[in-house]
């Protein structure tokens, strides 16, 4: 029982750690860049396979041409990752892609020159350096932009971008010069330290060989190929292996156990992580949704290309599946090393390309040894045994997740799992799949139509006058179909709600200025998510959109959704205070339906509270009215306006008025309306309120 509890508790903690990773913007940038080079890696693998086939057929010139081509792909990968980090950062933060790319590449060039004055930039950069320079450059520009916005109010956002771009470059160049001039000796010692550290991973003996296995497999958790990360080790290792085999053939020495081919044979069946075993496990699961992935990943696994499987299953950012991904090649290494050491199988006598299919590679490299081929098949079967429980648990979780898990928060409804077989196995694969699915749905929305604005009136019950309009976003397909905002969950899941809120804010204010300027004394209410409240761009964008005044008597109000959990309450309170100082009212939406209700009332500066429709629905219950009455009294304590939403019947309206509520919103009065209809309503109300301003022309002529 203790063992079962520990297994569940461990997996639960691993899943929670994955949720945090999936919502980390630095992890997003790294994964986006690694996914960008997946096609490059696949093409490189196919080029190497073509080279092997040409060499086998005797076309040595063509084989050499393909080898040179794959070297070019290998050299290009870090630069592509550097650029894609910049592109991802620009799209995520609504910045200029050109400036971000230029900054990222410039930072990379500066960093590379620090390391070596004679380096050939485009042919001599590493992936860690490419990723670090891309992230450091853009994060530093983000910090500089924030500081500039605090120093002065910029009327044009382009000014901030341009100034921050050059300021960031100057800071990076200055800092690099200091390192180069004042700390050159220290840098030299640091480089020597890392060089010595890398030697520990150089597989000269059994223990160092284990480190080498981990070096090749663990970085895949972040989507990074271990071979790309420490290419220098592999180049030297390959050269040493060729020299050792040549010496053995000439009788000048014994064969080493370890070589690159040794790892390719025993630790990379189907690719890093011995993922050929994972392919077989997926095939064994008849109802697995991942079987369709094998139409692409399966054939490539035969040539030891596994990027589609690693990103598609996924292994990346999956703290549960990374366990068998590392454990399987590690166990295979120990078994194969022991079998070779005790001469159960022969040592490797030929260099065979890593893309050669497994059994054939073992047969050729071992001098046509049947025992080696049998060991290869046994290790594949052992890998299946290791992968199987993890793949099986993933399938169980997939089938049960809809009832037991919140896809947006990653929180289980069952707080403490008690039975390994009964409880769904946590959300590791579902969390990643939900994120990918959200991205896919967003792309589908953007390509199948456009977003439009609707307005729902809010009324003052004493005279039934419209006093405010709540802005609502809708999606209109190319065929004209209007979709309610159910799609917002995809933007929440991917952290893109600020982009939606900023779009609504900019377009709603422009629409009011252009079409509702004749109406006076009105409030425009815009929904703002907690994600947007902590976005550093919010105050700048608010200042920008309010640079042009609203129509006479109009106020801007932000509705903060109480049903979403606030992650940074101190920052939120600070931002709310700054918004109010700009004359913006703060309303708490969905009061009574979400998180920490009393905490919201006591911690944040509020002007209005919107009671959730659940309180209206509760009026049908025996104590429903008393509950509503107490809620109203509670809101009055903090001296806020009170609005209730969701009123749909006359009976509900009567009880709401009896509770002392003055502001109301619901289908009994108006449903969400297109902009043109809302304008007509406001114009009609304006005419009724000021009849003296609409004297007929005939009367004016008599006068």
UniProtKB/TrEMBL annotation:
Chief site of localization: membrane
Membrane topology: Multi-pass membrane protein
PTS EIIC type-3 domain sequence ranges: 10-390
Keywords assigned: Cell membrane, Membrane, Sugar transport, Transferase, Transmembrane, Transmembrane helix, Transport
SUPFAM superfamilies: EAL domain-like
Intracellular or extracellular location(s): Cell membrane
Record Gene3D superfamilies: EAL domain
Spans through the membrane: 26-53, 65-86, 98-115, 121-140, 160-179, 199-215, 227-245, 265-284, 296-316, 322-344, 371-390
Domain EAL: 435-686
EC number of the protein: 2.7.1.191
A GO molecular-function annotation: protein-N(PI)-phosphohistidine-sugar phosphotransferase activity
GO cellular component, one term: plasma membrane
GO BP terms: phosphoenolpyruvate-dependent sugar phosphotransferase system
First-level EC class: transferase
Name of the protein: PTS system cellobiose-specific IIC component
């Amino acid at each position: 029982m203790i063992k079962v509890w520990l297994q569940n508790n461990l997996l639960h903690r691993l899943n929670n750690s994955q949720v945090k990773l999936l919502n980390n913007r630095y992890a997003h940038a790294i994964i986006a860049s690694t996914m960008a080079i997946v096609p490059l890696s696949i093409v490189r693998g196919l080029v190497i396979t073509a080279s092997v086939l040409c060499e086998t057929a005797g076309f040595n010139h063509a084989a050499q041409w393909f080898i040179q081509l794959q070297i070019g792909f290998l050299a290009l990968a870090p630069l592509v990752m550097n650029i894609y980090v910049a592109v991802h950062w620009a799209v995520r933060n609504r910045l200029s892609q050109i400036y971000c790319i230029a900054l990222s590449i410039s930072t990379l060039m500066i960093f590379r020159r620090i390391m070596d004055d004679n380096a050939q930039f485009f042919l001599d950069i590493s992936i860690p350096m490419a990723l670090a320079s891309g992230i450091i450059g853009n994060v530093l520009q983000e910090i500089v932009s924030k500081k500039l916005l605090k120093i002065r109010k910029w009327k044009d956002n382009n000014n901030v971008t341009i100034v921050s771009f050059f300021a960031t470059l100057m800071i990076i160049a200055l800092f690099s010069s200091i390192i180069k001039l004042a700390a050159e000796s220290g840098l030299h010692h640091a480089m020597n330290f890392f060089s010595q550290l890398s030697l520990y991973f150089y597989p000269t003996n059994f223990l160092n060989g284990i480190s080498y296995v981990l070096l090749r497999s663990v970085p895949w958790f972040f989507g990074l190929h271990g071979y790309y990360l420490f290419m220098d080790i592999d180049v030297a290792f390959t050269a040493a292996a060729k020299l050792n085999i040549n010496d053995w053939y000439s009788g000048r020495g014994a064969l080493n156990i370890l070589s690159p081919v040794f790892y390719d044979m025993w630790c990379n069946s189907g690719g890093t992580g011995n993922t050929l075993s994972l392919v077989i496990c997926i095939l064994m699961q008849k109802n697995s949704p991942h079987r369709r992935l094998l139409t692409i990943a399966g054939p490539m696994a035969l040539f030891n290309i596994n990027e589609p499987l690693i990103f598609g299953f996924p292994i990346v950012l999956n703290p549960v599946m990374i366990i068998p991904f590392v454990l399987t090649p590690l166990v295979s290494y120990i078994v194969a090393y022991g079998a070779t050491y005790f001469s159960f199988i022969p040592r490797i006598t030929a260099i065979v390309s890593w893309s050669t299919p497994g059994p054939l590679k073992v047969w050729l490299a071992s001098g046509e040894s049947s025992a080696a081929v049998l060991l290869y098949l046994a290790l594949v079967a052992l890998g299946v045994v290791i992968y199987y429980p993890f793949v099986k648990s993933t399938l169980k979780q997939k089938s049960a997740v809809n009832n037991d898990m919140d896809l947006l928060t990653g929180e289980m409804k069952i707080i403490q799992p008690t039975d390994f077989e009964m409880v769904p196995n946590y959300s590791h694969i579902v969390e990643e799949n939900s994120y990918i699915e959200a991205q896919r749905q967003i792309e589908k929305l953007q390509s199948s139509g456009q977003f439009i604005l609707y307005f729902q009136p809010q009324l003052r019950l004493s005279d039934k006058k419209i006093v405010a309009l709540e802005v609502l976003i809708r999606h209109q397909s190319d065929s004209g179909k209007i979709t309610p905002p159910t799609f917002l969950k995809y933007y929440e899941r991917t952290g893109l709600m600020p982009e939606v809120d900023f779009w609504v804010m900019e377009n709603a204010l422009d629409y009011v200025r252009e079409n509702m300027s004749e109406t006076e004394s009105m409030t425009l209410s815009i929904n703002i998510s907690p994600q947007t409240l902590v976005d550093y761009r919010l105050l700048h964008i608010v200042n920008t959109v309010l640079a042009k005044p609203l129509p006479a008597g109009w106020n801007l109000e932000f509705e903060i959704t109480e049903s979403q959990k606030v992650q940074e309450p101190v920052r939120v309170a600070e931002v709310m205070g700054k918004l109010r100082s700009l004359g913006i009212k703060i309303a708490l939406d969905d009061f009574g339906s979400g998180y920490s209700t009393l905490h919201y009332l006591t911690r944040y500066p509020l002007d209005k509270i919107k009671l959730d429709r659940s309180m209206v629905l509760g009026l049908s219950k025996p104590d429903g009215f008393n509950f509503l009455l107490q809620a109203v009294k509670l809101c009055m304590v903090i001296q806020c306006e009170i609005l209730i939403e969701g009123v749909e019947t006359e009976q509900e309206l009567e009880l709401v008025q009896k509770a002392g509520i003055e502001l109301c919103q619901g289908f009994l009065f108006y449903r969400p309306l297109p902009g043109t209809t809302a304008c007509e309503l406001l114009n009609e109300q304006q005419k009724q309120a000021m009849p003296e301003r609409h004297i007929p022309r005939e009367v004016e002529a008599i006068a």
